[in-house]
Amino acid sequence: MGAVMLDADDLHVTFRSGGDTVKAVRGVSFAVARGESFGIVGESGSGKSTVLRAICGLAPTTAGTIRLDGTPLTDPRPASFYRHVQMVFQDPYASLHPRHTIDKVLSEPLAIHGFDRREERIEAALNDVGLGGDFRFRYPHQLSGGQRQRVAVARALILEPEVLLLDEPTSALDASIQAEVLNLLDRIRAERGLTYLMVSHDLAVVAHMCDRLVVMQHGLAVEELTREALAAHRAETDYTRKLLSASEGYTPAEAS
Amino acid sequence: MTPLLTVEDLRITFPTRAGPSEVVRGVSFTLGRERLGIVGESGSGKSQTGRALLGLTPPPGKATAKVLNFDGIDLKNASAATWRRLRGARMSMVMQDPKFSLNPVMTVGKQLLEALKFGAGETRAEARVRALAMLEAVQIRDPERVFRAYPHELSGGMGQRAMIAMMLVTEPDLLIADEPTSALDVTVQVEVLRILDALVRDRGMGLIFISHDLRLVSSFCDRVLVMYAGRVVEELKASELDKAQHPYTRGLMNCLPKIEGGVRPLPTLERDAAWAL
Question: Looking at domain A4-48+64-95+161-247, what is its CATH homologous superfamily?
Answer without folding.
Answer: P-loop containing nucleotide triphosphate hydrolases (3.40.50.300)
